[in-house]
Amino acid sequence: MSMSNTAEIYKFPAPIPTQQECRMADLENGYLRLANQIQDALCIVELSGREFRVLNAIIRLT
């Protein structure tokens, strides 16, 4: 008794790309310079939503 390991392949249609508005940061209104070490720490710290917003406000205002 021989069993064949074959699969039927379905070709799904490609998604239709949507045209999005290209946005650039407005440097005249200011920007934040943040040390990579701080950004790396933000990626791994576990904060609640409120704690994260407070931390971002502190970073923004200092």
Automatic annotation (TrEMBL):
Q: Which Gene3D superfamilies match?
A: Winged helix-like DNA-binding domain superfamily/Winged helix DNA-binding domain
Q: Which residues cross the membrane?
A: none
GO biological process per UniProt: DNA replication
One Pfam family, please name it: Phage_rep_O
Domain Bacteriophage lambda Replication protein O N-terminal residues, every copy: 23-62
Cross-referenced InterPro entries, in alphabetical order? Phage_lambda_VrpO_N, WH-like_DNA-bd_sf
This one is known as Bacteriophage lambda Replication protein O N-terminal domain-containing protein
Q: Which organism is it from?
A: Salmonella enterica I
